[in-house]
């Protein structure tokens, strides 16, 4: 089926993987609804996307850290008669530091963004997709979903939820014509690590392991369009996930502690 007249909704779409995904959808003729917190960044992203392809781009300034925002997105699009054919839950946030010292309010906000808003948007748009008998959802998971994550314990926990949730709901609706796909990137060259205050982490300092967000987006887009359940982006990440699958959680936690601790930390 062609993409003419179809619309993709992408959260966190002004930079990084979300923006690269938006470019791929636009190139294939999808109209776009892009969501982010900052109106100036949204307008710039919309302008750039319109220059690339003759598609409609609707911007929605919404803060998905706030509980009501996910409901507002759905309600506003429904009231405007805009049908969403593809939902991309890309928005996410991390927080760096040992849990005993980290900020609780920040971590609870991250749980809301990474889990509650994703679940709400999935619930609302999935119902419509199932009723129509077609639709696609891409949830941004992470290779972090596959192991405990000292120094990012809450973030890893939220991504483990996203991965399990996506796989479970996919099974529930597998005969409905709707597919759910999880994209599992590793360390990627985005603003994520700056926002999470992770610049001093060993894993970020190792530039050889940092992926191009455009490559990650291509992996996720291809898997989504093929209706796959999940894709681990990057050969090295595929090897790491395979090895982690046969390693105890205790050993994985020890490994991740060493990988993610600050380079100046000698503990």
Number of domains: 1
Q: Helicity, in percent? A: 40-55%
CATH C-level? Alpha Beta
Helices and strands: which structural class? alpha/beta
CATH architecture: 3-Layer(aba) Sandwich
| Gross morphology | globular
**Rg from Cα:** 18 Å
* Oligomeric form: single chain
Please tell me the overall pLDDT: 91
Overview of the structural elements:
The protein is of the alpha/beta class and 267 residues long. The chain has a single domain (7-260), classed as Rossmann fold (3-Layer(aba) Sandwich). The chain is 49% helix and 13% strand. The chain has 10 helices and 7 strands. The protein has helices at residues 16-27, 39-52, 67-79, 104-132, 153-172, 192-195, 202-205, 213-225, 235-244, 249-260; strands spanning 7-11, 31-36, 57-61, 86-89, 135-140, 178-184, 230-232. A 7-stranded parallel beta sheet has the order 3-2-1-4-5-6-7, with helices on both faces. Helix 1 links the parallel strand 1 and strand 2. Helix 1 packs parallel to helix 2 (39-52), helix 3 packs parallel to helix 4 and helix 4 packs parallel to helix 5. The radius of gyration is 18 Å and the shape is globular. 44% of the residues are buried. The mean pLDDT is 91.
């Amino acid at each position: 089926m062609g993409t003419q007249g179809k619309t993709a909704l992408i959260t966190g779409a002004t930079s990084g993987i979300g923006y690269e995904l938006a470019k791929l959808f636009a190139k294939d003729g999808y109209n776009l609804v892009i969501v982010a917190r900052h109106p100036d960044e949204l307008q710039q992203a919309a302008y750039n996307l319109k220059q690339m392809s003759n598609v409609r781009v609707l911007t929605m300034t919404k803060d998905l850290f706030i509980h009501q925002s996910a409901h507002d997105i759905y309600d506003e699009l429904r009231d405007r008669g805009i049908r969403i054919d593809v939902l991309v839950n890309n928005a996410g946030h991390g927080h760096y530091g040992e849990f005993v010292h980290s900020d609780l309010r920040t971590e609870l906000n991250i749980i809301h963004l990474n889990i509650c808003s994703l679940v709400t948007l999935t619930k609302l748009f999935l119902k419509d997709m199932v009723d129509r008998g077609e639709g696609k959802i891409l949830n941004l998971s992470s290779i972090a979903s596959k192991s405990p994550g000292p120094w990012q314990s809450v973030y890893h926990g939220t991504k483990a939820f996203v991965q399990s949730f996506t796989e479970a709901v996919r099974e529930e609706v597998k005969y409905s014509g709707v597919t759910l796909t999880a994209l599992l990137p590793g360390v990627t060259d985005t603003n994520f690590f700056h926002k999470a205050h992770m610049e001093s982490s060993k894993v970020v300092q190792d530039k050889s392991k940092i992926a191009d967000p455009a490559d990650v987006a291509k992996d996720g887009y291809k898997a989504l369009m093929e209706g796959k359940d999940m894709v681990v982006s990057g050969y090295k990440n595929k090897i790491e996930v395979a090895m982690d699958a046969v390693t105890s959680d205790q050993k994985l936690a020890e490994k991740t502690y060493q990988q993610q601790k600050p380079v100046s930390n000698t503990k």
